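Re: How this chain folds, sequence and tokenised backbone to follow
How to read it: Take the token row as a discrete description of the fold.
Start of record: The labelled sequence and token lines come straight after this line.
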Amino acid sequence: MQQQDWKLLSWCGISFFIPQKWSVGKIQGDETEGSLRIDDPLVERIQLIWKRTPPGQIGKFVDRHLREIQKKARKKELQFCAKRNLKHPINKRFEGELFYWKADSQVYNLCLQTGGKHNRVVFLRILGNLEEDLESKADRIVSSLKLERELPYRHWALFGLDVTVPQQFRLDGYHLLAGHVRLNFTTGDQKLQVNKFSLGQIVLEKQPLEDWVLERFKPELKRFKFATERESIHKHLGLAIQGERRGFLARYLKGDKIHLYAWFCPEANNIFVVLDRYKKACDIKKVVDNVLCH
């Protein structure tokens, strides 16, 4: 496969490249413990699991997994074979094990630990049928694997939304649909929201960007007195909104502010909206600068 046939997936500090036609099918959990499934147009292709655990558990984890798979194969009267401790450059970068097994399907497995004070076990499984050349795909995926450990930032990329946020922001929810991807983050008194809306050209044929933003984000803006101005964002015509809390609650929520940036990227045909509610510190400009829109 050519480079353009692959795309980056980055979630909860774990990133790697996958074929363009593969996409996320299901996500569960949070940054401490969770799972992610990736499908091609027909079947499941990748399982990713991460879990907070004490160090030194990789061998036990792999042994237990292979026993379970072998037991299932025996019940189905399938021939089972496994190859452990496969040689690969990934072994020099992480503490873990790359192994392979085959029964009614074939699977390349990478089990490793992240290290650091918040050690996690990461288990990556790449699935294929018995006839396909799975080795080349697995090599590309495994070789591209990166873990963000104790870095000042965290990278998130899926469904066409690609953004880097300061490390102190923790994922606080998400909305993942083909037409609208939203990631919610929190830290201290800040609530950060990053949005990507597809088919932006069709949306803006009906109304200007400013009118659409004010209508679409009316619930978020309605309790704030704000001003809008046009601004160039990533060399695109965009919109900046900044305001403060108004009304009866303003005296109790003194200092509550909101800041929003929105722009249309014609190259990607997407509308991006980044919104930050805060009282003191505001990191929204850093986040806007680190949205990869095209």
About this structure: The CA atoms of residues 70 and 244 lie 61 Å apart. The mean pLDDT is 92. The longest helix spans residues 58-75.
